């Protein structure tokens, strides 16, 4: 009897006799935790160092609200810390995934299993549905809200130079989509698929993806951002499922974030 190793890999399993199915749920959560711990740690170090160097430490300790009123002091250190921490995370993750055929297992090394036109049509449809929901949500369900307002304030505080614009683009439109697709679709969604029906796995991974975008350090937790980001995460998860290609999701996520960033610049 012959064993089709390729089909085993495409089903999200390791080749026979390779041990437990990959990716595992614990491994997926460990990488997600590493992602956020590095971001938070790097941001704290960068911001604290900048505040100390500015000579305004005592003033800001006595009145921390000054930072939220004027984020120009911490904007660039925060962006640099995110770029550096994301590059470190991505580097470590790629070293890990490059071993034992893991990139094949999470379907990074192949393009869509559908033909080009069907892939484009489905990709446009799922993102259009997600963006349509976001519009309805922000205009009619909770009118006047600004999704991730704190993040937008941070971006607005960045000095308007070509270099800073490029740096922000690298972080928001390239590093974030690549890492999020590897973590939430390539690892987490696949891990959940071993334990529940695929559409439940899409929903759960999208929910965790959405919770990861909540600013847990804000005075008022912005849980109202959960539904639109959940829908976007589910759209990417569905696209990943039907195309069988993580590359396709990464490209679409990059396009989505690039468009959002351009709209933000022009608003």
The major β-sheet equals: none
Shape: globular
Helical percentage: over 70%
CA distance, first residue to last residue: 63 Å
- Whole-number total of structural domains: 1
What is the radius of gyration? 20 Å
What is the helix/strand order? HHHHHHHHHHHH
Report the portion of residues in β strands: under 5%
Q: Label the structural class.
A: mainly alpha
Low-confidence stretches: 1-10
Mean pLDDT: 86
In total, how many beta strands? 0
Number of helices, where a helix is a run of at least 4 consecutive DSSP H or I residues: 12
Multimeric state: single chain
Domain CAAX prenyl protease 2/Lysostaphin resistance protein A-like: 164-258
GO molecular function: hydrolase activity
Transmembrane segments: 29-53, 73-98, 119-142, 162-184, 196-217, 223-241
Pfam families: Rce1-like (PF02517)
Can you put this structure into words, describing what you see?
The N terminus is likely disordered. Helix 2 runs antiparallel to helix 5, helix 2 packs antiparallel against helix 9 and helix 7 packs antiparallel against helix 11. Helices cover 73% and strands 0% of the residues. The protein contains 12 helices and no strands. The N and C termini lie far apart (63 Å). It has one domain. It is an all-alpha fold and 267 residues long. The protein is globular. This is CPBP family intramembrane glutamic endopeptidase. Its EC number is 3.4.-.-. Keywords: Hydrolase, Membrane, Transmembrane, Transmembrane helix. It comes from Sphingorhabdus arenilitoris. GO terms for molecular function: hydrolase activity.
């Amino acid at each position: 009897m012959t064993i089709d190793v390729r089909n085993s890999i495409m089903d999200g399993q390791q080749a026979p006799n390779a041990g437990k199915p990959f990716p595992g749920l614990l491994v997926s959560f460990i990488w997600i935790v590493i992602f956020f711990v590095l971001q938070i740690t790097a941001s704290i170090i960068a911001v604290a160092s900048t505040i100390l160097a500015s000579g305004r430490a005592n003033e800001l300790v006595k009145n921390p609200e000054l930072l939220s009123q004027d984020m120009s002091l911490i904007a660039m250190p925060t962006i640099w810390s995110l770029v550096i921490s994301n590059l470190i995370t991505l580097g470590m993750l790629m070293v890990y995934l490059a071993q034992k055929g893991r990139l094949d297992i999470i379907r990074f090394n192949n393009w869509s299993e559908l033909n080009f036109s069907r892939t484009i049509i489905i990709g446009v449809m799922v993102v259009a549905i997600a963006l349509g929901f976001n519009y309805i949500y922000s205009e009619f369900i909770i009118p006047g809200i600004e999704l991730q307002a704190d993040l937008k304030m941070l971006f607005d505080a960045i000095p308007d130079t070509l270099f800073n614009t490029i740096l922000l683009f690298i972080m928001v439109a390239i590093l974030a989509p690549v890492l999020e697709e590897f973590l939430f679709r390539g690892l987490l969604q696949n891990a959940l698929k071993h334990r529940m029906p695929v559409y439940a796995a899409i929903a759960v991974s999208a929910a965790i993806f959405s919770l990861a975008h909540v600013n847990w350090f804000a005075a008022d937790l912005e849980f109202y951002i959960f539904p639109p980001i959940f829908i976007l995460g589910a759209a990417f998860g569905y696209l990943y499922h039907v195309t069988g290609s993580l590359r396709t999701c990464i490209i679409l996520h990059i396009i989505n974030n690039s468009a959002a960033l351009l709209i933000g610049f022009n608003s």
